[in-house]
Amino acid sequence: MDDFDAKPLIVQSDKTLLLEVDHPVFEEARAIISRFAELEKSPEYLHTYRITPLSLWNAAAAKMKAEQIIDALYKYSKYPVPQIVNAEIMTQMTRYGKLKLERDDRGNLILHSKDANYIKEIQRNKKIQAYIEGAKDANTLFVNNDYRGHIKQALIKLGFPVEDLAGYDQGNAFKFSLREYTASGRKFEIRDYQRSAIDAFYAGGSAEGGSGVVVLPCGAGKTIVGIGAMYAIGAQTLILVTNTLSIRQWKNEILDKTSVKEEDIGEYSGDKKEIKPITIATYNILTHRKKKGGDFTHFHLFSSNNWGFIIYDEVHLLPAPVFRMTSELQAKRRLGLTATLVREDGLEEDVFSLIGPKKYDVPWKELEKKNWIAEARCVEVRVPMRQIVRGVYSVSDDREKFRLSSENPEKMRVVGTLLHYHRNDQVLVIGQYLNQLKRIAVRFGIPLITGKTPLNERSKLYQAFRDKTIPVLVVSKVANFSIDLPDANVAIQVSGTFGSRQEEAQRLGRVLRPKETNGNSATFYSIITNESSEERFSHNRQLFLTEQGYEYFIYSYEQFKEKFGSYLQVIREQKKAGTWRPMPPKSALGLADKDLEEDRKEAAKELAMQT
């Protein structure tokens, strides 16, 4: 490792890092680089990372030192590290913590820095002046107590990350104990990495802890981290989740693993409006308003109780209005839980300033090696587009091109072959477009779950899947998050949301829960139309998982048929066995124009966000 040529990394003056994939120490180098840099591209042989101010501030908040980062670059770099990169690392790492929000001996909220020039610069900025109530001295400004979140949000946009040490309201006390055995009779212990995450967030109850984000893969028990933090804090808690099904899952986990009584847990959703010591609410109900531009009907929930703790589940999906409300809740302890901090809307800085910095992260592959999550294999199958469809595709706009390639009819053959190949497994077929999913459900006689499926019916189908009376489900975007299907070991993705990295991670997460059978392994298939816009977007979708160490095995359609057999062979086998189902008439599909229009509107919205 002493010779430059024997090293895998090239550090460039624009702060990009090029990492050689086939190098013997690639994984070792990637493990440390991913702690302070963001993956941008991941072709076969050379991965591109970028060092950004936010990536360095998160590293600083996680107690990494600038010297550690610079030493790592020198250790793995083929060539001398440009001096400008060293200077940027030192500058940005020292910026975090240079500005501190604290309380003085009279309880006033103050912004303090040892560098008086920082304070002078901030004091002159017109965007900050509305939040300041004057100077205490050359190094200290008084901050309006109501604008604790606003000033942090404004300062980070100017390149000044604030370390918030102003402390928290304790809120109403609510103590409970953790069970030694779950209600279902299993031994319950908080795993070592879950305990580390709780300790990193809580920090012994000091002002250094109490706000921030814990990043863990799906299936690794983020709910347990939330429960452990609730136990440590011992206060009445508001939990915000993505949907009503998630409310039930959080409630079941709390009842199963703690001494909390059912009457102490409230549901605040479209169905019920309960406020209890532990209240679980959906983001949808919080962002509801009677008319566009009107007041948010249920924002009073944040002030309806003296909460001591707020948990934001799936924080990468946090809606903008909840961000705005969170800016006024900085005196409450706040925990964000997510599998990925990636936000397609670019609001990662708002997560940092309003929820808190990343407190704990663990590589997915590390948990896989310890069998805490299933060992997963990612496979991409590239199918051709028939000439007649290709002709329509060539004259379409970007939105329709993506839709045509996503709904490519040739994908049906691959789905049929995979369902036959995995006929003894628990399989989820996941997609974006309702028409496509309906065709698959009807063609293969599989139950379909979409956003319009009633909650009771949805719950019954999920339970039947858990009981293995239903081996396959077709699911829309409702299955992207917060679904506990521990025995699902195969996912077949037929279409997705443009280049959404978070969605790819969430969908793989559906099959990552540890398995008691199948050797604790899982397979994630993505079916992509070859030489299309879908193929281009798929590369971006895979970025986050590539950073986590997952490799996509690419099959052309011919290679796929060689390994798995052709669909014609499957049909012959099924006819011989008497299990063949001919395609039902189109009327059985129940495909309405309004479904197509809904898909188009959704696609237009997603494309606008991506581009």
Description:
- By secondary structure, the chain is an alpha/beta fold.
- The chain has 4 domains: 4-95, no CATH class; 101-164, no CATH class; 192-362, Rossmann fold (3-Layer(aba) Sandwich), CATH 3.40.50; 370-610, P-loop containing nucleotide triphosphate hydrolases (Rossmann fold), CATH 3.40.50.
- Helices cover 39% and strands 18% of the residues.
- The protein has a 7-stranded parallel beta sheet, with helices on both faces. A 7-stranded parallel beta sheet has the order 19-20-18-21-22-17-23, sandwiched between helices.
- A hairpin with a 4-residue loop joins β3 (38-41) and β4 (46-50).
- α2 (53-61) packs across α4, α3 runs antiparallel to α4 and α8 crosses α9.
- The protein starts with 8 loop residues before the first strand and ends with a helix.
- Mean pLDDT is 86; it is low at 591-596 and 606-611.
Write a brief caption for the model.
This protein is of the alpha/beta class. It folds into four domains: 4-95, no CATH class; 101-164, no CATH class; 192-362, P-loop containing nucleotide triphosphate hydrolases (Rossmann fold, 3-Layer(aba) Sandwich); 370-610, P-loop containing nucleotide triphosphate hydrolases (Rossmann fold).
> What spatial order of strands do you see in the largest sheet?
12-13-11-14-15-10-16
Strand percent estimate = 15-25%
Mean pLDDT: 86
CATH superfamily of the largest domain: P-loop containing nucleotide triphosphate hydrolases
- The count of DSSP E runs of length 2 or more, i.e. the number of strands, is 23
Overall geometry comes to: globular
The total number of structural domains is 4
Under CATH, the topology of the largest domain can be stated as Rossmann fold
Number of helical stretches of at least 4 residues: 25
CATH class of the largest domain: Alpha Beta
Largest sheet: 7 strands, parallel
Low-confidence stretches: 591-596, 606-611
Quickly give the structural class.
alpha/beta
CATH architecture identity of the largest domain: 3-Layer(aba) Sandwich
Rg calculated over all Cα atoms? 26 Å
The percent range for helix content is 25-40%
